[in-house]
Design a protein that fits this description.
Oligomer: single chain
Shape: globular
Radius of gyration: 16 Å
Number of domains: 1
Order of helices and strands: EHEHEHEHEEEHE
Strand order of the largest sheet: 3-2-4-5-6
Strand content: 25-35%
Number of strands: 8
CATH class: Alpha Beta
Largest sheet: 5 strands, parallel
CATH architecture: 3-Layer(aba) Sandwich
Distance between the termini: 6 Å
Structural class: alpha/beta
Length: 180
């Protein structure tokens, strides 16, 4: 079942960025770090939106959390590694950690471990497009685009033009069929 289309995704990202700009008077030490893959794409988009809103371009990095996952052995014996590319020091910076969907909190936990291996930020805030609850760890987003009520037997997927050649958020039953 489609829950957001391209227009709604754009509008939601704009709202999140407006909240970030209004909450943070000084963005000079603020950086965006997106969790690979779709979180990294959202972080790039957010940097452009924030630049339009306040005239300040925020540095953007990509974070691969694959080797930090607590379920790595369940996923694959040869996991696909994507590169981490954070072309700036994170020491003493305000990091906006960006992900597409917040579910159990385990991805974010892995991202925090990976990020802290790279330095010591002054502050980390979590930005997610979708929060679907079902937390297994005490992790909460600071900026949320949309809350979705889902069952734990469903999946929520963000599809982006850059990877999927379409732009939408869908809820999918675990058997792979869209729910109608």
């Amino acid at each position: 079942m489609k829950v957001m289309d391209a227009t709604e995704i754009r509008a939601t990202l704009n709202e999140i960025c407006q909240k970030i700009v209004s909450k943070n008077q000084d963005l000079s030490k603020t950086c965006l770090v997106g969790i690979q893959r779709r979180g990294a794409i959202l972080a790039q988009r957010m940097s452009k939106i924030i630049s339009r809103l306040c005239g300040q371009k925020l540095p953007v990095g990509r974070l691969d959390i694959t080797l930090y996952r607590d379920d790595l052995s369940r996923i694959s014996y040869q996991p696909i590694l994507r590169n981490t590319n954070i072309p700036f020091s994170i020491d003493d910076k305000h990091i906006l950690l960006v992900d597409d969907v917040l579910f159990t909190g385990r991805t974010v936990r892995a991202a925090l471990d990976a990020l802290l291996d790279l330095g010591r930020p002054a502050r980390i805030e979590l930005v997610v497009l979708i929060d679907r609850n079902h937390r297994e760890l005490p992790i909460q987003a600071d900026y949320v685009g949309k809350y979705l009520a889902t069952s734990s037997s469903q999946m929520v997927e963000l599809k982006v033009e850059e990877i999927d050649r379409k732009e939408e958020v869908v809820i999918i039953d675990k058997d792979g069929q869209n729910e109608f």
